[in-house]
Amino acid sequence: MEKIDIRLLADSAPMGPLQRWAVFLCGLILLIDGYDLTVIGVALPSLMVDLKIEASAAGVLASAALGGMMLGAMVLGTLAERIGRVKAIAISVFIFSFFTMACGLANDVWTFGMLRFVAGLGLGGVLPAVTATITEFAPQRLRSFITTGVFAAYSVGSILAALLGRFLLESLGWQGVFYLAGLPVLLIPVLLKYLPESAAVLQSRHDSKSLRELALRIVPSLQLAASAEVYAPMPEKKSKVPVGGLFQEGRAFSTLMLWIGFFSGLFMFYALNSWLTKLMAMAGYSLKSALMFLLLLNCGAAMGSFCSGWVADRLGIKRVLTSMLVFGALATALLAQSMPQEAIAVLVFIVGFTMVGGQGLAYAYVGQFYPASVSSTGVGMSAGVGRIGGIAAPIIIGTLISLQLPHAQNFYVIATFGLLQAVAFALINNRVAAFCQAREVAA
């Protein structure tokens, strides 16, 4: 009896209708995710005035969704294994769309904060499932390119939040940017119909009929005999690698530097996305101009994400990353200076290109630094520490603003964290990195 490994089939398949639908829908989901997460930075100046919110409390509001994301990634990730990945994605989309829209109906700070936290559950839950879907169904020869392109949609969502905010704030007030976030609920039937279910989920259910149907969707021209068995190889259950494994074989210092780097990097990332509009308004710019700066920040981030990987492949990931972060920290510090609006606009774009766009490169670096046996643990721990920095950033910057310090001081604080990330990554010992050891073995 012929046996067909559906994973190998997907790896070598052409870009057919199933693959195109998967890429399109996953990219669209991340675009919406990016919009919903960035929209707080767009609405914050008007929101603070309308609901009479102090800057310190506004910082907590900006962090509420980030706290929900941490919990959502764990809860909905586990749920996907039980009910299926497609249903988990649909539930996540409903949660973050409905509750982000509901934020527009809030008339007090506590209601708004709770709604943002619940929306964060969906925002955090959708990312692992979308990543797994792209990894499973994108052809192997195009996987890196497709993954990079799909994740760039996240920055496009942030760009749309800033762009649409310039018009919606005038016509509908801050509520309008949240109402718009409810439209993706209409996407759920499309997701349920066209997004492919994970082969591993079907295998765990012993659903041979659905596996055969999935194989024919992956390769429509496949000649599948009636007696052929389509299966998805199930990974062997391995015991979890303890965190202590990250500190072995000379990696202890470098692991600490990675954690400091990720904490600092995501602090800077969420500080800028949450507070840049307000900081620019404090500097005397109109709300429209302040939103344009947020737009430029995310345009730079999208371009930096695309370009940095290509350059890093040729010049070395650590060298490119640390250089970008140093330039970005300098540009952030210069935002505190008084200069023409055109010069500020260029600096904001540079900050987005280097500091924000470089964060994707940081994830690539940590993924390559550890050997395969501890790689997942290393990435997970670094990302977890980074999320703590992301949650802390809006609160800390909001507290500093409430102290009524000169707005320039806030940019110096953000720049300091960017420089700290650069120093931390520069101090990492590449000689104990897995990719360097692999080269030595090959030689």
Automatic annotation (TrEMBL):
The chain crosses the membrane at residues 21-44, 56-76, 88-107, 113-133, 145-164, 176-194, 252-272, 293-311, 317-336, 343-365, 385-403, 410-428. One of its GO terms (molecular function) is carboxylic acid transmembrane transporter activity. Keywords: Membrane, Plasmid, Transmembrane, Transmembrane helix. It is a multi-pass membrane protein. Residues 22-433 form the Major facilitator superfamily (MFS) profile domain. It comes from the Bacteria. It is found in: Membrane. InterPro entries: MFS, MFS_dom, MFS_trans_sf. GO terms for cellular component: plasma membrane. This is Major facilitator superfamily MFS_1. It comes from Cupriavidus necator (strain ATCC 43291 / DSM 13513 / CCUG 52238 / LMG 8453 / N-1) (Ralstonia eutropha).
